[in-house]
Design goal:
Strand order of the largest sheet of chain A: 3-2-4-5-7-6-13
CATH class of the largest domain in chain A: Alpha Beta
Largest sheet of chain A: 7 strands, mixed
Number of helices of chain A: 12
Radius of gyration of chain B: 18 Å
Helix content of chain B: 25-40%
CATH superfamily of the largest domain in chain A: Thiamin diphosphate (ThDP)-binding fold, Pyr/PP domains
Shape of chain A: globular
Order of helices and strands of chain B: HHEEHEHHEEEHHEHEHHE
Distance between the termini of chain B: 57 Å
CATH topology of chain B: Rossmann fold
CATH class of chain B: Alpha Beta
Helix content of chain A: 40-55%
Strand content of chain A: 15-25%
Number of domains of chain A: 2
Largest sheet of chain B: 7 strands, mixed
Number of strands of chain A: 15
Number of strands of chain B: 9
Distance between the termini of chain A: 55 Å
Oligomer: heterodimer
Largest interface: A-B, 38 and 33 residues
Number of domains of chain B: 1
Number of helices of chain B: 10
Order of helices and strands of chain A: EHEHEHEHEHEHEHEEHEEHEEHEHEH
CATH superfamily of chain B: Thiamin diphosphate (ThDP)-binding fold, Pyr/PP domains
Radius of gyration of chain A: 21 Å
CATH architecture of the largest domain in chain A: 3-Layer(aba) Sandwich
Structural class of chain A: alpha/beta
Strand order of the largest sheet of chain B: 2-1-3-4-8-7-9
Chain lengths: 355, 259
């Protein structure tokens, strides 16, 4: 398959990009609003072309543990789900982080808590960026804001996952998963045949047996392992922070927003500028590691920052931690599957400016 | 006649059983008299004799055998509680030429992992599932298991398992035998030399069937738990024969048709 321009849903773009990125396996369970990923892959049937395995598991719990098994073989494997299903996967995700395995987990977020709603939301930010399951760990979290990024971040996620031997999450939402946009798809990559030295692929005489586990009953060794994980996360914070800025050069007020919220803040920015308010936007692309340093720099220059999220206010806590009291920070958000309008955002910016 | 001494007996020509080359020198953490060690040795012998070390991936459970990877010299993955068959599914699908087995206890396979057990067997994954059934949670200190017998005492059924409130012991081998995906389901034991030899034969069949891609092989080993049952090893084996075997009868439950 050559490079190609297609009109696709965000969910379909993820699925097609996975095939083209040379993924070895996808294991999933249906849930709205992301079932198109599994449906697309089943229809594409890549097992007959690239050899990619696609399997519908009996539960999200089984699916994430299939990902564990595949990742432990050094294979490029992934799963996807939406909020309630991602909660079910948390046990598997913490084991994967604890066993230092690379994989991709896609969360097409819907409103919660509980069964919540099937409409878009950004209320899984804490779960995605602060660990999610038990124990001290982080996922590397990428937040796409377009169908193009849904496609592009699949290969990027696999690259980062294998670079750090750490699970990577694409934190999307129901809007980006369901909407259609044009998307450039990369040419087909061959699946890797490399046998990774740490992977469980059968013990040849030339090496010791490989054991993939997250267990160590010796507290001193376990603490050393915890410190190693933390060093890995610090390295990510040094090297992997990604963000995008809009009109920040002369901005007096800064929107901070990711994903769908960042798209509507781009429009709110124009509306505010038309009214003479010097607004800017910082869009974090990595939610962990978070662009703390850049926000701290910008805090010296702006009069305030407004975090816009489809949640009760989760990412805003990271904005506050980043600026460390240097500037005013507030939050505007809608919940339950409601998406704020750009006009609504501008009105809230005005209220924020008045103090 | 001269007296026969111990040193007269331990000579190479008298050796009937030796440690498999695939068993490591690590000291086992299992309690004296426990069946796990024997089951490990038999499995290691089969892996060695079938020359499977270089293409075997084993999946260990959460439970007494969580550290199995310390004892058999093959590649291992350590699963979350109950999830071993899900891991094994992916390993076999992604690397169909490998020999893949899971090793689980009764809490792991028949309680928390019931869904994975049933659906892996139902898909007919080409793997071997080894199920050690001793009717108790050994590692956590002797709590009631899904396979604990009617009236049997444990730390969470101190007055004996009450079927009315705690449910009946579950016969997993009989359940999975009903699924079209399983090709070979058998129940064995390791409490006698004869039992050990039968288990070894069963394991060799499972290797053959996996090579022939015939579906899921499910081997239950009814075993003892001297510590959890609060008995000596000898008492526990006697109790197992008198109580476990009548409820979990040994023998083949499902065998594949000859090709």
């Amino acid at each position: 398959m050559e490079k190609e321009l297609r009109l696709m849903k965000g969910n379909e773009a993820i699925a097609e990009a996975a095939i083209r990125a040379g993924a070895d396996g996808y294991f999933g369970y249906p849930i709205t609003p992301q079932s198109e990923i599994l449906e697309y892959l089943m229809e594409a049937n890549p097992e007959t072309t690239t050899g990619m395995v696609v399997l519908q598991a009996e539960s999200e719990v089984a699916a994430i543990n299939m990902v564990y098994g595949g990742a432990a073989c050094g294979k490029k494997v992934m799963t996807s789900s939406s909020s309630p299903g991602i909660s079910l996967k948390q046990e598997g995700i913490t084991y994967i982080a604890g066993a230092e395995l690379p994989c991709l987990i896609v969360n097409v977020v819907r409103g919660g808590p509980g069964l919540g709603t099937i409409q878009p939301a950004q209320s899984d930010y804490f779960q995605a960026t602060k660990g999610g399951g038990h124990g001290d760990y982080h996922l590397l979290v990428l937040a796409p804001s377009s169908v193009q990024e849904m496609a592009d971040f699949v290969e990027l996620s696999f690259d980062l996952a294998f670079k750090y031997r750490n699970p990577v999450m694409i934190l999307s939402d129901g809007a980006i998963g369901q909407m259609m946009e044009k998307v450039w798809l990369k040419p087909q990559k061959k699946r890797s045949e490399e046998i990774l030295p740490w992977a469980t692929t059968g013990k040849p005489a030339s090496r010791e047996r490989n054991i993939i586990t997250s267990l160590d009953l010796d507290s001193e060794r376990q603490e050393k392992f915890n410190l190693k994980l933390i060093a890995k996360y610090r390295e990510m914070e040094e090297k992997e922070v990604r963000y995008e800025e809009f009109m920040t050069d002369d901005a007096e007020y800064l929107f901070v927003a990711y994903g769908t919220s960042a798209r509507l803040c781009q429009k709110a920015l124009q509306l505010a500028r038309a009214e003479g308010i010097k607004a800017g936007l910082l869009r974090p692309i990595t939610l962990f590691p978070y662009p703390k340093k850049r926000l701290n720099e910008l805090a010296d220059r702006v009069k305030g920052m407004l975090a816009v999220e489809m949640s009760a206010g989760q990412m805003v806590e990271d904005v506050m931690l980043s600026v460390n009291g240097k500037t005013r920070v507030s939050h505007y958000g809608r919940m339950g599957g409601m998406i704020p309008t750009p006009e609504e955002v501008v009105e809230n910016l005005k209220t924020f400016i008045k103090g | 006649m001269a007296e026969v001494t111990f040193n007269d007996i331990i000579k190479p020509e008298n050796l009937a059983y030796t440690k498999s080359k695939l068993m490591t020198n690590n000291v086992m953490h299992y309690c004296p008299g426990c069946g796990h060690g024997t089951a490990h040795q038999v499995l290691a012998e089969v892996l060695e004799e079938e020359d499977l070390q270089s293409r075997t991936v084993g999946i260990t459970p959460v439970g007494c055998s969580v550290l199995m990877y310390n004892y058999i010299d093959v590649d291992f993955q350590e699963a979350a509680h109950g999830r071993a068959p899900a891991l094994a599914t992916a390993v076999k699908r992604l690397m169909p030429d490998k020999f893949v087995f899971t090793y689980q206890g009764d809490g792991d396979l028949a309680a928390i992992g019931t869904a994975e057990t049933i659906h892996t067997c139902n898909r007919g994954e080409n793997i071997l599932m080894l199920f050690i059934n001793n009717g108790i949670y050994g590692m956590t200190g002797g709590q009631m298991a899904p396979t604990t017998l009617d009236g049997m005492k444990s730390s969470t059924s101190p007055y004996g398992r009450n079927i009315a409130t705690m449910g009946s012991p579950i016969k997993m081998a009989d359940i999975v035998a009903l699924l079209p995906g399983t090709c070979y389901v058998t129940r064995q034991s390791v409490n006698t030399a004869g039992g050990v030899r039968k288990l070894k034969r069963a394991l060799k069949k499972a290797v053959q069937y996996q090579n022939e891609k015939r579906g899921t092989c499910f081997i239950e080993v009814v075993s003892n738990c001297p510590s959890g049952w609060k008995m000596t090893p000898v008492e526990s084996n006697k109790w197992m024969e008198e109580n476990m075997f009548p409820f979990y009868p040994l023998g083949d439950i499902k065998v594949p048709s000859e090709k």
